[in-house]
Amino acid sequence: MDLNLPVAYTLRVGVAIGAALAAIGLGIWAAQGFDSSTALSNYTLGNILEAALTGNASGIVYLGIVVLIATPVVRVMLSLVYFFAEKDVKYVGITAVVLAMLLFALFSGRIA
Predict the structure, then answer these.
(1) Does the structure show a pLDDT above 80 at 73?
(2) Local structure of residue 5 (DSSP, 8 states)
(3) In this structure, what DSSP letter does residue 87 have?
(4) Chain-centre distance for alpha carbon 81
(5) Residue 28 predicted with pLDDT over 80
(6) 8 CB contacts (<8 Å, ≥6 apart)?
(7) How far apart are the C-alpha atoms of 61 and 39, rounded to whole Å?
(8) Which residues constitute the domain of residue 94?
(9) How many separate domains does the chain show?
(10) How confident is the model at residue 42 (pLDDT cuts 50, 70, 90)?
């Protein structure tokens, strides 16, 4: 199995969905007047999803940003599964370290 095709597809779809959500949110925000939208005060994934599903322009933009941030993480996870299935121990280790660094960088900035 070739890894390039699923990775390329994942990146294309992730960027397309994230950019589309951001553009839709900005379009709604512009249509309502830029002063009408309220920013989310608590940036949890649940709050972002709730705001996006209720049509809040800021919530839709934030959801697009979340998808854009998640896209490379999903790509690395896909690579890890591929290398594991191929029993390529060297690249499983390298990819696992890259994934750990991505997740650490993603979650270390959030102090409860």
Answers:
(1) yes
(2) H
(3) T
(4) 19
(5) yes
(6) none
(7) 10
(8) 4-108
(9) 1
(10) confident
Count of other CB atoms within 10 angstroms of residue 55: 11
CA atoms within 13 A on the CB side of 44: 6
Q: Which amino acid is at 33?
A: G
Instruction: Give residue 63's pLDDT band: very low, low, confident or very high (50, 70, 90).
Output: very high
Q: Whole-number mean pLDDT of the chain?
A: 87
Residue 78 near residue 87 (C-beta atoms within 8 A): no
- Cα torsion angle, 46, 50, 55, 56, sign: negative
Q: Is 36 helix (H, G, I), strand (E, B) or coil?
A: coil
Q: Which of 79, 77, 65 is nearest to 14 (CA)?
A: 65
- Reduced to 3 states, what is the DSSP secondary structure of residue 1? coil
